[in-house]
Design goal:
The protein is of the alpha+beta class. It is 37% helix and 27% strand. The longest helix is centred in the C-terminal third of the chain and has 24 residues. The chain is globular, with a radius of gyration of 23 Å.
């Protein structure tokens, strides 16, 4: 019996390798477990219409199952009767949108696709759902919002249908939804937004990294929505016009990403920070950064960060800074907020620090666990 379902993913940031990862070079990304993406789905009742001598009789099938009994019922009807069903259109409540999922437009095309691929995988292609998502991090900032929301919705639908899927199967479904949003996704966002460990990614191969580094990432939102699709397209045009220059940049970005894996394993904060600084210079040469992001990067370094760079597709979005200790991280956060960042988060790279949010509070201070929070929507 299909029932209400719940799914959860989280934000991510790319430490090293954005854009070069699209060309087959390695990249390293970190999940941000405390910045959640949650999805709840409720199956929509299907209205079955029985036509008797031209008159329609309506009944609602409330268990949402497509059983052999349903199919055999029509064969038992008299010749003057026919039996059909029609699905009500599912709704979506996400960000500042509330309405029909089919009318949500290209902005939510990935979510519409996520519902389709998940219901098909669950062998319930005719089912429709009312979908609610809730995120504790902003969309359009290079934090994996589209992959996280698609992944959360897919997990929620599989949960509603009591269907088990392997991690690889869910990643495949998420990437099928991501094609609608980004055109040619690398797969890195889909992999990281459901991983509890850092992810090393190269040409579709995923390797999880257990990192215990006595350092902190400071993630700052510039407040400017970026566009991965546009940025990737711009880099592609540059590659067509001057392949040698772009290849040289990609080669170095790939080398920096490989070096960062070693730095993370060894806890080499200074070397990782140096690589981050150089990566930002190279990405800026590709014209995928933004003046405000560049300003905030410089401000973070001046405040004591060991390194700082843009993260994600660019043209806005977020930057990340590496701090060697908690006090430096707090100072970098204060500085970035003063210099124009809209919001700043601190993420520990130490395995001993927990990032899990067990509860969420509403404006009145009431606490809800993951599943019951939907009641506050």
């Amino acid at each position: 019996m299909v029932h209400m379902g719940y799914g959860e993913t989280w934000a991510k940031v790319i430490l090293m390798g954005e854009h070069s990862v699209v060309y087959g070079y390695p990249a390293v990304a970190a999940p941000l477990l405390s910045l959640k993406m949650r999805a709840w789905v409720t199956p929509v009742e299907q209205e079955h219409v029985e036509v008797v001598s031209g008159q329609a009789r309506h009944s609602v099938i409330s268990d949402f199952r497509h059983s052999d009994d349903d199919l055999s019922l029509s064969s038992k009807l008299e010749p003057s009767r026919s039996f059909s069903s029609q699905s009500h259109v599912g709704t979506l409540k996400a960000l500042n949108y509330e309405g029909s999922l089919s009318d949500a437009g290209s902005r939510f095309g990935g979510l519409e696709r996520a519902v389709k691929v998940a219901t098909e995988f669950a062998s319930h292609p005719a089912l429709t759902f009312d979908v609610v998502t809730d995120s504790s991090f902003p969309a359009g900032r290079g934090m994996g919002s589209s992959a996280a929301s698609a992944g959360a919705v897919i997990r929620a639908i599989l949960d509603a249908c009591d269907v088990k899927a392997s991690e690889q199967e869910i990643l495949r479904l998420t990437n099928e939804a991501e094609v609608i949003t980004h055109g040619n996704p690398s797969g890195l966002d889909a992999a990281t937004t459901c991983s509890r460990d850092l992810v090393a990614f190269e040409s579709g191969d995923i390797e999880k990294m257990s990192v215990d580094m006595p350092a902190y990432l400071v993630i700052a939102d510039s407040g400017i929505a970026g566009s991965t699709r546009e940025a990737v397209g711009n880099v592609h045009k540059q590659d067509e016009q001057d392949h040698a220059r772009v290849k040289s940049i990609m080669d170095e970005l790939g080398e920096l990403a490989r070096a960062s894996e070693t730095d993370l394993e060894l806890g080499a904060v200074r070397m990782l920070g140096k690589s981050m600084n150089r990566a930002h210079e190279l990405l800026d040469e590709l014209n995928v950064s933004h003046p405000l992001v560049n300003h905030l990067v410089e401000a973070a370094r001046a405040a004591g960060a060991s390194g700082a760079k843009m993260t994600g597709g660019g043209l806005g979005g977020c930057l990340i800074a590496l701090a060697a200790d908690a006090e430096t991280a707090k100072n970098v956060k204060r500085t970035l907020l003063h210099e124009g960042a809209r919001e700043v988060w601190i993420h520990s790279l130490s395995a001993q620090d927990s990032d899990q949010e067990l509860y969420r509070e509403d404006e009145a201070g009431n606490r809800y666990d993951d599943r019951s929070f939907v009641a506050a929507q």
